[in-house]
Amino acid sequence: MTRLHDCFNAQDFAQVARRRLPGSLYHYIEGGADDELTVRANTQAFERHQLVPRQLRDIRQVDMQRRVFGCDLEWPVFMAPTGMTRLFHPAGEQAVAQEAARFGAGYMLSTMATTSLEDVADCATGPKIFQLYLLNDDGLNRAIIDRCKAAGYDAICLTVDCVVAGNRERDLRFGLTVPPQLNRRNILSFVQRPSWGLRYLAHGGITLPNVPTPDGSSSLGTLTSYFATKMEQNITWARVEQLQQYWGGPFIIKGLQSVADARDAAAAGVTGIIVSNHGGRQLDGSPGVLDLLPAIVDAVGDQLEVVLDGGVRRGNHIVKALALGARACLIGRPYLYALSAYGQPGVARMLELLRRETERTLGLIGVPHIDDLDRSALTHLDSQPVNRPVLLSTGAQRSGAYS
């Protein structure tokens, strides 16, 4: 079995997580919608943008501090909101929030979290943002915002790209159920992972303490079904403005991908937007978010803060996104792999590696402060000259001559 300090990147943690989780849970993290084209597009977009280093720069001190969404970050990264995190390891959301604070990053807690927003606020000292799914009952929406106010959250992040559920075929193929139940598609994978099952049972299963219900129900199956029926499918900009006013602090929209929507967000006066396709888990066939970023930054970057979510696996990915105008990046799957593999120590190791990679990349390209990053630090593969093979005459080929 791979030891913690033999993991050096997100893929290493993913391989260990695959060996430790039942198949349905691993593929829940890994998978996306339909053919998973957008999942792949998110990571492949970073490969097309290449870094152009500058030399003879003073990089004795590399400063990565930045204020984003009202949060003071030592490193412009937020842990993305992920649902049902304690399914993967009982340390769950609290472990991730604590390590985010220790490494100078921000943490975003999902409405579908398996730890209460109050418990997360009590255990973690770093910047915290609550991710809100809008329900069709404004009394319930206000109730959860009131809890965030009382618990001292820094901002509200409204996710708008889940008004229709994505078609996640891996969940069907591998028999994912909430709560986990044995069926013909998953029974073998659960039997092969007895340590996960014993750990899950030892900690009493999971609940969704941030899902507001009028009757106080705590059954996971009941909560998820109830929540699905209450999701608002008509989110309007007027509702966004009402929620902003009720909250009274930094307010963010997550899940925008078009310049037109970004302009509408700016007109609505939100603090910022997160350019995101939900990790490729909703609409398949949309572009990688990095490819969408420059046009959105050009359109609204002087009016609100733009953050990127999707495909980040390396510190150099973070640097590329910042160079294209993102104020910060969200990280999701990498910390879930690390948590699933090793619990809280795994999250610490993953964040340490990513932060070190980010700082190292800035030093290698000659940028001592992230505010000095701009698009001159990048080139795009499509803009590079094509190295075509030189066609040689027969005589030249025989003699071994080259042009």
From TrEMBL:
Top-level taxon in the UniProt lineage: Bacteria
Question: Which keywords belong to this entry?
Answer: Flavoprotein, FMN, Oxidoreductase
Residues the entry annotates as binding FMN:
81-83, 110, 131, 159, 254, 276, 309-313, 332-333
Q: Which cofactor does it need?
A: FMN
Active site: residue positions: 278 (proton acceptor)
Which residue range or ranges hold the FMN hydroxy acid dehydrogenase domain? 2-383
Q: Show the GO MF annotations.
A: FMN binding; oxidoreductase activity, acting on CH-OH group of donors
Pfam families in UniProt: FMN_dh
Q: Which InterPro entries match?
A: Aldolase_TIM, Alpha-hydoxy_acid_DH_FMN, FMN-dep_DH, FMN_HAD, FMN_hydac_DH_AS
Q: Electron transport among the record's keywords?
A: no
List positions binding glyoxylate. Answer: 28, 133, 168, 278, 281
Instruction: Provide the family line.
Output: Belongs to the FMN-dependent alpha-hydroxy acid dehydrogenase family.
What is the protein name given in its UniProt record? Answer: Alpha-hydroxy-acid oxidizing protein
Species of provenance: Halopseudomonas bauzanensis
